Amino acid sequence: MKGRRIWNRIFIAYVCLLLYFVVLKINGSTERMKTIKQSRDAGFWNYNVYPLSTITPYLEDITYTYAYMNILGNIIPFVPLGILIPTMFKRYRNVKKAILIFIICIIGIETLQFITLLGYFDVDDILLNMIGCIVGYFFYIGISNLSKNVIYNKKLEKTSSK
Q: What sections of 19-122 are H helices per DSSP?
């Protein structure tokens, strides 16, 4: 039970940090909101629904600092989500269910950014965030399988030494 409380606290802290850094964009400035509002008033909405349209230019010049910062900045923060969801919730240890909950979480964040004018709803962000979640999920699977093998080998050693 104590371990469960620790995981709950880690999860809550992670979600708060994720929302702070991803949605509020670290500084929490309202300047971004003003810019997005002005763009909307001019008829330009804060969304992108065309896959790879924002990623492609970054991949063409990956040496550009903003390019890899954007790509890694959309992947790395979601790796812990891919680890924490199956760790905390047994029903999401199945890959299909895990992917579904990842998509729901990510689309929720993108929608929150769109509605609150704190950012853009970008399908490319969804793709990159999913890569992060999937990397985290497979890291979880690898560690889980490794720990099961270690436990199994210890049990095997005990029975064979008798």
A: 31-41, 55-60, 65-75, 79-88, 95-116
- Would you say 59 and 65 are in contact if contact means Cβ atoms under 8 Å apart? no
What Cα–Cα distance (Å) separates residue 64 from each residue in 58, 67, 95, 131, 147?
A: 8, 5, 35, 21, 40
Tell me the pLDDT tens digit for each residue of 63-80: 778 888 889 999 999 999
- pLDDT tens digits for 96-136? 999 999 999 999 999 999 998 888 899 999 999 999 999 99
| β-pairing verdict for 121-122 and 47-48 | parallel
156/150 Cα distance (integer angstroms): 10
Question: Which of 141, 57, 150 minimizes the C-alpha distance to 99?
Answer: 141
Q: What is the pTM of this model?
A: 0.86
Alpha-carbon gap, residue 32 to 23, rounded angstroms: 11
Specify the pLDDT at position 156. Answer: 60
Neighbours of 10 (CB within 10 A): 14
Q: For residue 87, what are the CA distances in angstroms to 55, 82, 148? A: 31, 9, 14
3 state SS of 105: helix
